[in-house]
Amino acid sequence: MKINEKFALFYGIMLGDGCISKIGSCSFISISCNFHSDRPFVKRILPLLTEIRGKKVKAYDRIKYGKIEIIFSDKPLFNHLKKLGFPVGKKGPTLSILKEFKFYMKQVTQGFLATDGCVIVINNNETVYPRIEFSSISKQLLEQFRSYIISCGINCNVYLSHKKNSKWHPKYRLQINGKKNLVAFKEKIGFINPKHQQKYEDYINNRIVIEMFKKETEG
Predict the structure, then answer these.
(1) Domain ranges in the chain?
(2) What's the average model confidence in pLDDT over 106-116?
């Protein structure tokens, strides 16, 4: 399984909401998506996954849990990901991007944002601006993304968003603030999740801003 643009995109998606696990003799690969907002994204990536493994891949609605789950058993792909250092089971705070993907950081970044990131619009004392966010318990992973994004001429920073407690690792957030950086991200890296592309278009065309102030006026 050659590391190329398509595999790098898959790898980025796995770094976000992907998991590999062993149950008995079965080697599973799964990706969890939001039931309410990610259906167009799921439809977009199913052909990619089918191409990578050479077999059809299906998605399953998990209404009770509010998610769409893509899950399949594939020992060769499982072993390949494991050989590349992808953790079996839960991903921990040492998760990072392997050097083998250094020439495909655009695709890895697209995949990670699509699953473990968001595009939001902030209203800070009537100053409205967009923000792209990446979230992870692995600070070193976000610092790798930060280095790449800065190399594209886009300003960003990594912050501690949730402190460690008895149950959870600390969580970190990479933030890309402002319209200039949003446009630069769209042009130089791009969005593969349709909901992020839609949020971008809504902001650029002022639909979000108008709606935000309309709700505040009505409230």
Answers:
(1) 5-89, 115-218
(2) 97
Q: Distance between CA 145 and CA 33 in Å, rounded?
A: 21
Does the structural domain 115-218 have CATH classification 3.10.28.10?
A: yes
Q: Is domain 5-89 in CATH 3.55.40.20, yes or no? A: no
Tokens of 77: 């792909």
pLDDT beyond 80 at 211: no
Indicate whether 76 pLDDT > 60.
yes
How far is residue 57's CA from residue 50's CA, in Å, rounded to a whole number?
5
Encoding tokens for residue 119? Answer: 């595009």
Q: Which residues contact 196 (CB under 8 A, 6 or more apart)?
A: 113, 114, 117, 118, 119
Q: Is residue 59's pLDDT more than 60?
A: yes
